[in-house]
Design a protein that fits this description.
Layout (H helix, E strand, L loop, with lengths): L1 H26 L6 E6 L4 E6 L2 E7 L2 E2 L8 E10 L20 E5 L8 E5 L8 E3 L3 E4 H10 L5 E5 L2
Parallel strand pairs: 1-10, 4-8, 7-9
Antiparallel strand pairs: 1-2, 2-3, 5-6, 5-10, 6-7
Length: 158
């Protein structure tokens, strides 16, 4: 029940955010900038609007030796129920470490590093991945729906 209410609140918030952006765009020549900011140390992904965090998600990042790369990237691929090639696990399978959605980063042609779901949400908040950013499936599905291709993604150590 709470997740359903929270999802509806988030949906309404993003609609209001988009409407605000349309209103401001018609008033001034400047456009609002929406981007994702990933804090590796905090294991948090923030949705940013003009450098102001408007929402935060708990994530998992790369473990020692398989660190999540730092820098500024773009989302260049989006896949629903991605197939996990190394172990030939079909999309949607509870054994698939990519969960239900994949948003690939411009580093590695969109298929090496990405923001994706997980069927092991108990590992969120830790540095346990092979370099990707893991999220709850419901959270990544929400972002997948609202964040378009070419969205900027900033990954920092702090």
């Amino acid at each position: 029940m709470n997740r359903r209410i929270n999802k509806k609140i988030l949906y309404i918030f993003f609609i209001l955010l988009l409407l605000h952006g349309l209103l401001v765009s018609t008033i001034s020549a400047e456009e609002d900038e929406v981007y994702l900011w990933i804090h590796k140390k905090q294991n948090r992904l923030h949705v940013m609007l003009n450098d102001t965090p408007v929402y935060a998600f708990r994530i998992a990042t790369g473990r020692a030796g398989s660190s999540t790369p730092e820098g500024t990237f773009r989302i260049v691929t989006k896949v629903i129920n991605p197939f996990y090639v190394p172990k030939k696990i079909p999309g949607g399978s509870p054994k698939n470490p990519l969960g239900t959605r994949w948003m690939g980063l411009s580093l590695g042609d969109g298929y090496k590093y990405g923001i994706h779901g997980t069927f092991k949400p108990n590992l969120l908040g830790q540095s346990v991945s092979s370099g990707c950013i893991r999220m709850r499936n419901a959270d990544v599905e929400f972002l997948f729906h609202h964040i378009p291709l070419r969205t900027k993604v900033v990954i920092t150590a702090d």
